[in-house]
Amino acid sequence: MSNAKPNKTYSGFDVRWYKQLVDVSPFGVVITDAKGNCLHVNRRWQEIVGMSDKRVLGKSWLQAIHDDDNEPVTQRWQEAVRQQQSFFAEYRLCKPQEQFIWVACDANPVFTPGGKLEGYVGSVTDISDVKRRLIELEKSVEGIQTVISQMPVILFAFDKKGRLCAWNSEAERVSGYSAAEMINSPNALAILCPDANYRYQMLDALKERGSEFQDWEWQLTAKDGTVKTIALSNITKIHPMKNWASWGVGVDMTERRRTEYNLRERVKEITCLYKLSQISNRPNLDISVFLQEVVGLIPPSWQFPDKTCARIVYESEAFATDPFKTSVARLSSDLRVRGRIVGLIEVYYMGGKAEAGSDPFLPEERLLIDEMALQVSRTIGHVLSRQDLALMEELSARAQELEQFSHVISHDLRTPLTAIGGYAEFLHKQINQNNIVQAKSCAQQITDISERMEKRLEEILKLAKLGKIVRPAEAVNLNDIIRETLVMLAPRIEKKDIKVSLSDNLPFVIGDQTRLCEVVENLLDNAIKYIGDKPNRLEIGCRTERNIPVFYIKDNGIGIDQKHFDSIFDLFWRINKNAEGDGTGLAIVKRIIEAHGGRIWVESDGLGKGCCFCFTLGRILDR
Ligand code: ADP
After folding, report:
1. Residue 238 exposed, middle or buried by CB count within 10 Å (0-12, 13-18, 19+)
2. What is the Cα–Cα distance from 184 to 243, expressed in whole angstroms?
3. Alpha-carbon gap, residue 72 to 80, rounded angstroms
4. From CA 460, how far away is CA 575, in angstroms rounded?
């Protein structure tokens, strides 16, 4: 209990009453005089501070203040008393047997009705718990700040004035600008985005996105001039922070984007080589078609497809992309086939120098063009080898044919020649004997045999010439050819009372119209020639075998024994030597079909069962 003597009355309360009231208060209460000397403290005050009221009177209470706080608190108290102003302070008090406690002291001046300072009434609250927690919190905030400043994520914040107020060490590392340079700088954005156009675009985009967005890619210009890609997220709305009007985090994506870009380029290059190998492996490759396709693979495989054009020159023939334009920015690689330079692949960059940087071509593109040239050269080599092989096969077939010819010619011409020789000898005799009639008959025989020989030689020559069909190029309508031939053969068809059925769905083919007419004429002529007894039938059509159209002419004639299936296609070969015909028709037909890349064969169930001549052609027109 305080010993201060009550000597005043306020608003009808005796000071004793007031003292009692103060003593039951849960707060520590202190009353001082106008000079700040302590007059009275309540019970709670004594408990909080751990001092008896006697020890605190006057200025003695100031001695209980912790050494570190004593001077500033004393000064502030004296200053408040001098200025007759209220006083507030948080400070440490040393309690006996305890280290110290934190208190909050709040004191207000009390004036007489005349306005004279009478003293102070103050309260003291033990805030040790709050203070301890606050200190712990500060420590953990400090810890978090350390983590934030050290984490490999850019942290930035703008204050209400739009100035940077947070710029962590990752932001410093990526940008090259220190926090000291950036924080509070009115030019921070202009420094980081020196291109005004881009800066305005960026600000517009940011405005549009508001205070919550994720991974918006921003191009930051670092201090060393390099442009970096930052994936920016604004999290102001999710985590509002005091004094940070707008804040967020960013991740430096530059390396990742570069890797992704490089990866995309490599995929393009690999795709190019893959497509090239696919084209190279196509059967019956035509070099011109191949080179035109290959040149088309180049622009999409280069890093600037829209500004890249290419040309392949092979044996002075050029295959170029559309558009094509030469320029100083050029890559090239030679085509070498069988040890000889036969051409080259060229790639041109059609854009300006500034757009592409110092070199518009990647080092990998230099390797790619060399690899392409190598593959193209190899493929041309293979095609040439195949052509050589085909030529060799053709030559050996010709040689065989020639041999066959010479056999046939020597065999077939020997008989008439022997006969001519015999008749000539006989003629000689008849002339010597002056037997004119016999001589004339001999001469006539010689003439007849010579004419037959001439005819036969003509056929041989005709067959030899057939090999010259190498480039059949017209679109031929087989339906028309067959119809026209049937009209030509109509008298014979009618005479033999043959019922003809023709399917009109025969596909168009690419070939030599005149030669194909010959094929149809020969096959129909044979079918009519070797037709059997009534009722006679002739069927002309097209069936599909393994996706290939097979044309056929089927009769119900005398048929062919299986053992003759191959030999009927030999020159001058006939099954029945007494029958009409000279055995050249099918040999000519076979030659024409093969010159068109096709095949001919005969199907028959045997003698008397009719036969079916079937053939394919190399080039069918899709309609
Ligand atoms: P030819 O002028 O003798 O008909 P081809 O070369 O056209 O000569 O035919 C060779 C042989 O094939 C014929 O002599 C004949 O024996 C046989 N032949 C051709 N076509 C038919 C057919 N449609 N039916 C039966 N035999 C045929």
Report:
1. exposed
2. 13
3. 12
4. 19
518 lines ligand 1 (CB under 6 A): no
Q: Are 217 and 237 in contact (CB under 8 A)?
A: no
Contacts with 330 (C-beta within 8 Å, 6 or more apart), sequence order: 346, 347, 348, 349
Which tokens sit at 109?
């001046």
Query: What distance in Å separates the CA atoms of residue 366 and residue 363, rounded to the nearest whole number?
Result: 5
- Of 526, 607, 615, the one to substitute when testing ligand 1's pocket (max ligand atoms within 8 A of C-beta) is 526
Cβ neighbourhood burial of 382 (10 Å; 0-12, 13-18, 19+): middle
> What one-character-per-residue DSSP string does 270-309 give?
HHHHHHHHHHHT-TT--HHHHHHHHHHHHHHHSS-GGGEE
Three-class SS of residue 210? coil
Q: What is the pLDDT of residues 78-120, one digit of tens each?
A: 999 999 999 999 999 887 777 788 999 999 999 998 889 999 9
Q: How far apart are CA 232 and CA 252, in angstroms?
A: 9
Both structure tokens of 337: 């086939």
**Angle at CA 307, nearest 5°, toward 306 and 310?**
100
First-to-final CA distance of the chain: 120
CA 319 → CA 288, 309, 331, 343, 481, distances in Å?
8, 11, 16, 11, 38
Give yes or no for residue 583 CB within 6 A of ligand 1: yes
Distance CA 154, CA 106 (A): 44
* DSSP type of residue 315: T
Report the atom number in ligand 1 closest to the C-alpha of 530.
24
Strand order in the sheet with 611-615: 498-502, 536-545, 548-555, 611-615, 600-604
pLDDT in tens, 333-371: 999 999 999 999 999 999 876 555 678 898 999 999 999
Q: What residues are paired with 105 via a beta bridge?
A: 89, 124
Tell me the whole-structure pTM to 2 decimals. Answer: 0.46
